[in-house]
Task: structure prediction
Amino acid sequence: MTTLPSDLQKAAEFIEKHDDFLLMTHERPDGDAIGSIFGLLNLLRNHGKSAEAVLPDEIPDKYLSFLPSNYRTDISSVEIAMHQCCIILDTPNRSRVGIGPGLKCEQIGIPIILLDHHPDNMRYGQINVVQPEVSSTAELLFMLSKELRSWEVTPDVATLWMLGMVMDTGGFRFDNTSATTLRHAAELLDLKADHHRVMLEMFFSKSLALQQFEAELFNSHLRTDFEGRFAWIYIPETLIDKYRIKMRDTEGLIEILRSIRTADIVALIQRSNDGYKVSLRSKDSRYSVGWIARELNGGGHEMAAGGKIKNTNFDVAITVLSDLVQKVLNG
Ligand SMILES: [Mn+2]
Result:
C-alpha cells in the first residue's frame, strides 16, 4: 500500500529540489516569526541553498542579539521575481504578510509555500502546510527539517527554533504545549539549542524603564468588568512617552494581565490611526477570543487573538468591546 505524501513531505521535497528562496513572515514580527524565519534562513544556507529573509518592520530590542547581520528590510517586486519561490511563515492571510509599504502579497509572482499553525490560515500558497495542533511555526519547521533527509540542524538553528517555541507557548505554560511540543524541545536541546540564553534574553532582561512603565500602567490603568472576569488596560500614549517605551517592546504585557486569577478574558487596547487596536487572551477554551477578534475584523487563535475597532471615540470603542466580551462570557 502506498500512502500519499503529507503537505509537510511535499514542502520538504519542494525545498530539496529548489535552490533559491525568499523568506517572509507577518508584519510586526513576534518571537515565533523571528525564530522561525532566521532558523530556516540559516538551515537553508547551511545546506548550500541561496536564501534571503525580508522583515520590513522594526524588531523588538530583546531579539536583536539573535538576528543575523544580513537580512533585508525592504524588497521590490523585481527583486522578488529574481527568486525561485517564496516561503511565508506564521502568517494566516495575505494582508498580514510583512512585505513592506507599496507592495501587496498578490504581487508575489513566484510560487508560495506556506508554513503556519494558525487555524484560520487562508491557504493562499501553492503548498500549504497548516497544522493548528502544533505549538508554533518554529516547531513545525523542526518537523519539516526531519523530512529533509540528512539535513543537519546546527546549534544556531536549534536555538532560533527554541526561541520561537518558547515565545509562542509562553515558556511552555500555555495550553498549546503538548507532550510532542516538549519532546521536540528536548530534541532541540540534544541538538545544542542554547536554552539558557533564550530564557535569559526573553524573561530576565527587561529594561528598568519598561519595568517602571508596567508598574504605573497596572497601578493606574487596569480596569475590570463583569465581577473581574474581564480585565483590560488601555495604554495611554502619554505613558509611553513618559518612559520612552517602544510599543514593539511590550510583547509580554498581556501575559501579566492574563495572570490575574479572576480574569477569564483580558484585553490590551492601544490607539491606532483610525480607531483602537485590541489584543485579546482567554484562559478557558469555553471563551473564544478568536470569535471576538473576527467580529472586530481580525483573527488569530481561539485563546489568543487580535482585532481593530474602527471608531475614534474611546467610550464607543470600549462599549463595542465589552458588549462582545459579555456575549462570550455569558455563552
Ligand atoms: Mn506563531
Observations:
- The longest strand covers residues 265-272.
- The first helix runs from residue 7 to 17.
- The pocket of manganese (II) ion is lined by residues 32, 90, 117, 136-137, 168 (CB under 6 Å).
- The CA atoms of residues 139 and 184 lie 7 Å apart.
